Amino acid sequence: MSARISIKALLVATLMAIAPWSSHATTWASSNVRDPITGQRVTVQEPASSGSYVYSWPEKSDQVFWPYTDSHWLWFNPNSGFIAFGNDFEKLDSTQRDALKIWLKANYDRKAPPKSRLELLSWAEKVYAVRGMDEDFWSRFYRLMAFETQDDMKTSLGYVSKALPLLEKSLRTSTDAGKTLRELYLLSEYNRRLGRDDEAKRYLDRLTSTEVNEDLSGFKKYLLEISEAQRTGAPGS
C-alpha cells in the first residue's frame, strides 16, 4: 500500500472486503520480456486488473501486497536460472549482469530447477543477493517471506528478525509521514511476534500518539485496526 493512500481508497477497500468473492478478482495478461542474462524472450504474466480490496487481504499484517504475493509476478527463466519480480526483471546494469552470469553458471542446475513457490522465492533471495539490492528492497522481501512462511514459525520469525533492523533504520531516517506510520506499526507487530512485549507496546504507543493530517488519518486508522486484530487474533488477521 502506498503510504499516502487516500481515505476514499481505504473506504473502497473496506466495502470491497465485505462484497462477494467474485468482486475480489485479479486478472493477468500474457506478455513477453527479455531475459537480461541470455537475451532470450520469456513468456510471463503481467497485472491487468485489481482493486483496492487487495489491501484488506491477510498479507496486510506484513504490509506486503498483491502482486508480490502472487506467483505470476515472480518471473523465472528455467533455461538460465534468472529470476526476479516483474517490476525489476529487466533492470540489470552491466556489472550486475556480468556478476550474475558467472554466479548462475556456477550455482544453477538446469536439471533441478526450483518449482514450488517457496523454492522459487528462496532461489530469488539468492539471485537478488548477487544483484546487491538496497535496504528498502530487503525490508519488503523479508516481510514477504515472513508472510509466505507463516506455517513454519521458526522460519517466519527468522525473516521477522532480519527485517527488524532495516525497519528501525528506516524509522530513524524517514522524512515521510506515511512511511513513519507504517514502520511504527511493523516494529510493534514484529516485536510482538518475537515476544518482546515492552518494545511492541512502545512502538504501538508511538503510533497511537502520532498526530497526522487528514490525508493520513485513514491510513493510521487502518494500521491500528490491523494491530488490534493481530493482537487479539481476530478472524482475517
Explain the overall architecture.
The chain has 237 residues and is mainly alpha-helical. Helix 4 runs antiparallel to helix 5. The strands form 2 sheets. A two-stranded antiparallel sheet has the order 1-2. It contains 8 helices and 4 strands; from the N terminus they run H-E-E-E-E-H-H-H-H-H-H-H. It starts with 6 loop residues before the first helix and ends in a 5-residue tail after the last helix. The protein has helices spanning 7-17, 94-107, 117-131, 135-148, 153-173, 177-193, 197-209, 214-232; strands at residues 27-34, 41-49, 74-76, 83-85. Strand 3 and strand 4 (83-85) form a beta hairpin. Helices cover 52% and strands 10% of the residues.
Compute the average pLDDT. 91
Number of domains: 1
Distance between the termini: 17 Å
What fraction strand?
Answer: 5-15%
- What is the ordering of alpha helices and beta strands? HEEEEHHHHHHH
> How many strands?
4
Q: Describe the sheet with the most strands.
A: 2 strands, antiparallel
Strand adjacency order, main sheet? 1-2
Helix content: 40-55%
